[in-house]
Protein: Glycine betaine/L-proline ABC transporter ATP-binding protein
Amino acid sequence: MSRLQVEHVFKVFGPRPDEAVRRLQEGAERDALRADGTTAAVIDASFGVAPGEIFVVMGLSGSGKSTLLRMLNGLLTPTAGRVLFDGQDLAALGERELRQVRSTRISMVFQHFALFPHRSVRENAAYGLEVQGVPRAERERRATEALELCGLAGWEDSWPDELSGGMQQRVGLARALATDADLLLMDESFSALDPLIRRDMQDQLLELQRRLRKTIVFITHDLNEAMRLGDGIAVMRDGRIVQVGTAEDILSRPADDYVASFVQDVDRSRVLTARAVMTGAEEQGRHAQTPSGCGCPSVAPDTPLGELCAVSARVPHPVVVRDADGRVAGVVPRQRLVGLLGDEPRAPLACAGAVTAGA
Structure:
């Protein structure tokens, strides 16, 4: 079951929004509405986010991703459609109920840190708990624990201007974690950081996710960031979601020419795995040159494509993919790797089984 479910959501700004939604549903284009002073920011968006998943919404500036995010915590109300959080329609909540949900169950991590300069690092991390009315001793304890999780132990009594940009963003992340919210919304949270610090923050988020298994919706315009972080990815263009899938789905089976051009420069060797490119185990019989139990190296389904190519370069037959129990899950012919990477691997060595037999 999805923790967060978005069903046919539209967000229109300007006069006669309901009429604009009707026109969009009948096939009108976004640009056609602008002549009437109407902006369709989000058009018929649908997706689900499972508990413990990092779901990334990516797209260029103006694609509607930040507007979509603000409907996920009720800051904006959909013109049409529903946003369900644990089965509850956020638009059906009263103002007081919605404030309660936002303060206790949904946390937001902003792009520009949003730290209070007159509060210490600990006080900033505890701010969400203060809003909830948590007693001081309890909120300081939880804030200290969250700061430690984010690698800021020892900085609790410092001021924000004493911290680097990356450290300030860690405080923002700690503030979100301290509330123990069920859902984290992250709006371009790392885009203001230098590339090296940005990658460090991505590593930090992935490590935290391995430990805490939060449900996260992460907004970015950076394709490599989306591919690195996302369990699921939605690609937006001109207000519409044009594809939803895993990084492997989007790279291997782009929905249209726009997505294909968007992902053409991604380093597939770092994103794709053997699972995404292998043929089924039943295909092994079609490759007569694939010996059974020859002693050549095999790979696991989650082996990155780069490592898979290194194995392919050492064996004269399709690479065997084995599951955790050692059973053959599939094979990867060299021609398939060539098609994906466009570069013929070097000549392989002799098959280990053949060498042994001839010894």
Q: What stands out?
A: Confidence is low (pLDDT under 50) at residues 354-359. DSSP finds 17 helices and 13 strands in the chain.
